[in-house]
Amino acid sequence: MRYYPVFLDIAGKPVVVIGGGNIAHVKVVGLLKAGAEVTVVSPELNAEMAALSAEGRFRHLRRDYEPGDLEGYTLAFVATDDRSVNSTVADEGKARKVWVNAVDDPPYCDFIMPGIAQKGDLIIAISTSGRSPAMARKMREEIEKFLTDDWAAMLELAAEVRAELRERGKLIDADVWNRALDPDLKNLLAKGKQAEAKERLLRSLSEPVSTT
């Protein structure tokens, strides 16, 4: 396994995106959702990026990338389709200890971005270790079919119950949780029976498991 999978908390952290086109827009939207403080370096912005800029959603430096632009940033994304820029930014990233992602150019990446399937706070990341973006997209589409709203509802219920139990000083073993989050619970949530589902979950977490 070449790449170590991880979810980063970048809320409030400075991130720079170099480029102003469609791919850069996708990166910026994701970063803003995660609460990052975004700066975009690009002489031009596409319509969607220009609208976000007009709303003050990010800081815009209206010019090409220049050496030194990575200073003070936690992460850098390059989306320019110019391998010479990718190379220069990657070199500066190594010098300044800033992690760089050059879109679709793995040799100049310190990290790669996974495909994402999401329902609420339930997020599944898919990676082919940079070998086939098309395969990652195919897997994401298949997982999105599986990831229905009742899975997100189960997460919300599990988080609610976990918080309540922790307030009462009760810690539940992971194996017990795994058995309790069963298909019957998901079916109750799919039918909109939240109260009944919560009662069932609490009962499953408190009852001893039969060994016979």
Beta-strand content bin: 5-15%
Oligomeric status: single chain
Separation, N- and C-terminal Cα atoms: 41 Å
Overall residue-averaged pLDDT value: 94
Overall shape: it is elongated
Report the helical percentage. Answer: 40-55%
Number of helices: 8
- SS elements, strand count: 7
The strands making up the biggest β-sheet line up spatially as 3-2-1-4-5
Largest sheet geometry: 5 strands, parallel
Characterise this structure:
The chain has helices spanning 22-33, 47-54, 83-96, 133-146, 149-167, 174-180, 183-190, 194-206, and strands at 14-18, 37-41, 59-61, 75-78, 99-102, 115-119, 122-126. It is an alpha/beta fold. The protein has a five-stranded parallel β-sheet, sandwiched between helices. A two-stranded antiparallel ribbon has the order 6-7. Helix 1 (22-33) links the parallel strand 1 (14-18) and strand 2. The longest helix is centred in the last third of the chain and has 19 residues, at 149-167.
Defining key terms:
15% strand, 45% helix, alpha/beta, 5-stranded parallel sheet, single chain, 8 helices, 212 residues, two-stranded antiparallel ribbon
